[in-house]
Write a structure and sequence with these properties.
The chain has 10 helices and 16 strands. Strand 13, helix 8 and strand 14 form a beta-alpha-beta unit. The two termini are about 20 Å apart. The strands form 3 sheets. Strands 3, 5, 6, 7, 8, 15 and 16 form a 7-stranded mixed β-sheet that branches. Strands 11-10-9-12-13-14 form a 6-stranded parallel β-sheet, with helices on both faces. The chain has a 3-stranded antiparallel β-sheet with strand order 2-1-4, covered by helices on one side. The protein has 2 domains: about 200 residues, Alpha-Beta Complex (Quinone Oxidoreductase, Chain A, domain 1), CATH 3.90.180; about 130 residues, Rossmann fold (3-Layer(aba) Sandwich), CATH 3.40.50. By secondary structure, the chain is α/β, with parallel strands linked by helices.
Amino acid sequence: MRCVEFVGPGRLEWRNAPEPKLEASTDALVRPFVVATCDLDHAIISGAVNVPGPFAFGHEGIAEVVAVGAAVSKFRVGDVVSVPFQVSCGSCASCRAGRTAHCIGVERLSMYGLGPLSGRDWGGFLSDLVRVPFADHMLIAVPEDVDPRAVASLSDNIVDGWRLVAPQLAADPGAKVLIVGGDSVSLYATAVALALGAASVDYVGGGTHQQEVARRLGAAVIEGPVPERLGPYPITVNATSERKCLHCAIRSTGPDGACTSAGIFFGDDPTMPLMEMYTKGIRFQTGRVHARDVMPAALKLVEERKILPELITAETADWNDSVEALVSHKAKLVITRPREFA
């Protein structure tokens, strides 16, 4: 089969790879037909994050089921599904507790499309076929009235945005929210916060495109460089890997407030304003999203048209143009090809 492989900074290639097979009765084989870039993909392709290749690329997408094992009961050939980027078994103690990012039934950090960052090579979504273990648990059916292109990032970035604000607003309904923005995750968080009843969402940082989309979503954009502090806000979000943005989010968090960071800080750890955090008693959380656990809640917001993820898509491309589009993309890119069973 053909797949797109990341070879090195600025270099991706179509290559031939062994076709995956059903290895267990609980497996499914799926054919991705809509794939989106994750915010991390741009950093990998540009060389900002040093990840050695080659490895199969792509970890956000929508697929059709093309084969199922004998023990798969919830899905059949032709079903349209979203596949979480993290692999989880659904039955271990961590999965039963909703901590699917830390499944102990598979190798730690098992993920699609991220090569050496993963616990093992699970392949990538820019491929003709992908094997999905534990299919009844892993796969999420996409409703017929939801455009697959709109939920291409449900696998990762949409749910990453959801977890930055949804639990926090459940604990503090109607709170004001500050989002220190970067790329698409910050915009999904903006959309979710407004959909879930935030009193207001202020957005600072990001580029011109991100600020324009934030305004379109209903946020108030604070222009200019990211300052040392704003607020105070009961809920703050850092969606970048920049120290100044992290500090702004932390310092802008009000007493007993919640600050959540989706930033991945490769290399040296950033310093933290611990004394200010201590005196205000804020709750700071970082870490990976438990994607499979929260995908249904995020998908429901899309199905009810409370959030419109398509507004955040910046670029589109045909499947056959994947390599060129990936190398040149600057913001959320969605790549499509026709469905096989449409």
